[in-house]
Design goal:
The chain is an alpha/beta fold and 484 residues long. The protein folds into 2 domains: 11-147, Rossmann fold (3-Layer(aba) Sandwich); 180-473, 2-Layer Sandwich (Dihydrodipicolinate Reductase, domain 2). The protein is built from 15 helices and 15 strands. It has helices spanning 21-37, 56-70, 80-85, 101-107, 125-134, 154-167, 183-194, 224-228, 232-249, 258-271, 294-297, 398-402, 412-422, 431-451, 466-473, and strands at residues 11-16, 45-50, 88-92, 113-118, 142-146, 173-175, 207-215, 280-285, 308-313, 325-330, 337-344, 362-368, 372-380, 389-395, 456-458. The strands form 2 sheets. A 9-stranded mixed beta sheet has the order 14-13-12-11-7-10-9-8-15, sandwiched between helices. The chain has a 6-stranded parallel beta sheet with strand order 3-2-1-4-5-6, sandwiched between helices. β13 (372-380) and β14 (389-395) form a beta hairpin. α1 (21-37) crosses α13 and α10 (258-271) runs parallel beside α14 (431-451). The longest helix is centred in the C-terminal third of the chain and has 21 residues, at 431-451. The two termini are 27 Å apart. Bound molecules: NADP nicotinamide-adenine-dinucleotide phosphate.
Length: 484
């Protein structure tokens, strides 16, 4: 199978926070891979911007080291990396200062796509937007890419939307959620809306329930200070899990166009019922022999911030009334795995003997570590000895289907950056979506604070607190095993 690479138009891309962790690990190596694939054109320029004193050459050395470390190792020997580095420049800029902006303006070319990636702390988003405007860098054709977190509640998200709107039109703002850039997430839309097979069954009449799990093995790492003011609900549920929920639950848009898709996602969020607090479990990971527990990690012995959350929610519309959606995410769990699981109902009547077993179809969409989709179907166990039923997976794992080409599938960041250059907002969150998501999340968090709730401890390397298992067991269901 040969995938087509369509080069994007020439562009100027400025990465504010060009010396930061995200730029080093994801943005710069991603751009390099797009360069290697032929998608980034020869006329493109990339300018890093941050406070550190560097010139073009020393930044190129920084970029080279980032790519050698995080670029996957390929193409580095044959001169391609040297070619790529010719497109790189650097400007020393303080987002809150005045120096460097004229230099940056002088490097921008007229008549081509101009994109500004805000890979800095959210507190700087407004300062940068304002200066881009004041120094004449914000042209009608320019775009800004805004990293998460987008606010920490409805009020702050609204304020941020308002600030950005003073200088940029909504069509110029790309709020990035890298989960949406994953191949499988887009494949989810292809599976749902490109096949006759699934859509007629995609409703409460045939679907028993849906599970979305985003499990991490890492703890809070070096982000303890930030994380303790955020927690799993704000850091993961309000954005990544909500976006996945939207894509799995939305109505078919009339066309695969940015606002058509985002309108349907917004309707899902607005149809979410408030969550009963009996249907939410929060947890904090404990220490192991070698690693500290959550509270030690964030250096806050009385912290009530959750590193795990599981909840059951409902969508009040014709399609989903009565179908529960179970969401869970946490740190220091047994494996790194992100998966959406659609569990179909039992057949209305079994024609087989009781001991043949009863089985349900399960569609599992795995986002990481490997991307792929499997459909569990029930067949007869081969061989003599009567009619016994077993479940076998129909496996649509991309690595198998695409062979060596699977390695060429762009990672989420590189795909999304190319979408920015192409001007395609389909996989980016609109301002009203983000606000609607906070409007649903805020009361949950406020409820925890009001009731003085303390998260339940759970063992590192486990599946979270036992109460999360009970959340399902009470309903006669169980979580799909977190597998790597
Ligand atoms: P980081 O490692 O702390 O880097 C911050 C960057 O901002 C550095 O390049 C820093 O360089 C620059 N900076 C700080 N203050 C500045 C100022 N006043 N003016 C200009 N530049 C300034 O942060 P990060 O992890 O890369 O994260 C960047 C953004 O992406 C944050 O919003 C974060 O929430 C988001 N994000 C990160 C990840 C990730 O995996 N890292 C994932 C999702 C979202 P100087 O100190 O040289 O100025």
């Amino acid at each position: 199978m040969v995938s087509r690479v369509i080069p994007v138009d020439p562009f100027d891309l400025v990465i504010f926070g060009g010396t930061g962790d995200l730029a080093r690990r994801k943005i710069l190596p991603g751009l390099f891979r797009r360069f290697c694939s032929g998608q980034m054109p020869g006329e493109a320029t990339i300018v890093g911007a941050a406070r550190s004193e560097m010139d073009d050459d020393s930044y190129r050395t920084f970029v080279r080291e980032a790519i050698v470390e995080f670029g996957g190792g390929r193409h580095c020997e044959d001169g391609t990396l040297d070619e790529f580095l010719k497109h790189i420049g650097y400007v020393t800029i303080d987002a809150r200062g005045t120096g460097g902006w004229d230099d940056l303006a002088g490097r921008m070319r007229d008549g081509i796509v101009r994109a500004f990636y805000f890979s800095v702390a959210p507190a700087l988003f407004g300062d940068i937007a304002e200066r881009l405007h004041n120094y004449g860098l914000a042209t009608p054709e320019s775009r800004i890419v805004v990293e998460k977190p987008f606010g920490k509640n409805l009020e702050t998200a609204r304020a941020l939307n308002k600030t950005l709107a003073q200088h940029f039109d909504e069509t110029q703002i790309y709020r990035i959620d890298h989960y949406l850039g994953k191949e499988t997430v887009q494949n989810l839309m292809a599976v749902r809306f490109g096949n006759m097979l699934f859509e007629p069954l995609w409703n409460s009449q045939y679907v028993d329930h849906i599970q979305i799990t985003v499990a991490e093995t890492v703890g809070v790492g070096g982000r303890g200070g930030y994380y303790d003011t955020s927690g799993a609900m704000r850091d993961m549920v309000q954005n990544h899990l909500m976006q996945l929920l939207c894509l799995i639950a939305m109505e078919p848009p009339a066309r695969f166009e940015p606002d058509a898709v985002r309108d349907e996602k917004l309707k899902v969020i607005r149809a979410l019922e408030p969550v009963d607090y009996h249907h939410i479990v929060r947890g904090q990971y404990g220490a192991t022999d070698t690693q500290p527990g959550y509270r030690d990690h964030v250096e806050n012995p009385r912290s009530t911030t959750e590193s795990f959350v599981a909840l059951k929610c409902h969508i009040s519309n014709w399609r989903w009334a009565g179908t529960p959606f179970y969401l869970r995410t946490g740190k220091r769990l047994k494996s790194r795995s992100s998966e959406i699981v659609v569990v179909f109902k039992d057949t209305p009547h079994s024609i087989f003997e009781e001991d043949a077993g009863r089985h349900r179809n399960v569609l599992a969409i795995q986002l990481q570590p490997n991307e792929g989709i499997t459909l569990g179907v029930t067949i007869k166990e081969p061989g003599p000895g009567g009619m016994r039923l077993i479940d076998v997976p129909l496996d649509m794992t991309f690595a198998d289907a695409l062979g060596p080409e699977a390695e060429e599938v762009p990672d989420a960041y590189e795909r999304l950056i190319m979408d920015v250059i192409r001007g395609n907002q389909t996989l980016f969150m609109r301002g009203d979506e983000v606000e609607a998501a906070w409007a649903w999340t805020d009361p949950i968090i406020e409820g925890w604070t009001r009731r003085g709730e303390v998260p339940k401890p759970y063992d590192s390397g486990s599946t979270g607190p036992d109460d999360a298992l009970m959340l399902m067991h009470r309903d006669g269901r169980k979580w799909r095993e977190i597998r790597s």
